[in-house]
Amino acid sequence: MLAESEYTMNNLFAQLGLDSSDDAINEFIEKNQLVAGESLKESKIWNDSQRTFLQEEWDKNSMWTQVIDDLNLLLSNVAE
Fold first, then answer.
1. CA angle 11, 30, 63 (to 5 degrees)
2. How many Å is the Cα radius of gyration of the chain?
3. 19, 20, 34, 48: which one has the fewest Cβ atoms less than 10 Å from its Cβ?
């Protein structure tokens, strides 16, 4: 089990099977902004396995919940 300090954005991306480097995360966020009203957990940017992981971790209010919420906010920020 991961220690609380290990529930980071980098580790979430690794858990999702994505490049977890800071540069790759920033690029992912820039390229995958959610449209208004789109749910992070239902977005087409995820494959079925990733979507299931996000949904299950959110539903059980796991230690990943805060990081998933942070990712949702980052993907919902529309550049002005």
1. 25
2. 12
3. 48
Alpha carbon distances (Å) from 6 to 12, 15, 62, 64, 76:
9, 11, 13, 10, 24
Question: Mind giving me the DSSP string for 27-71?
Answer: HHHHH-PPPTT--GGG-TTS-HHHHHHHHHHHHTT-TTHHHHHHH
The number of residues in the chain equals 80
Residue 15: partners with Cβ closer than 8 Å, 6 or more residues away: 53, 64
> If residue 15 lies in a helix (H) or strand (E), which one and from where to where?
helix 9-15
The pair of three-digit structure tokens given for residue 36, joined into one six-digit string: 């208004």
Q: What type of residue sits at position 15? A: Q
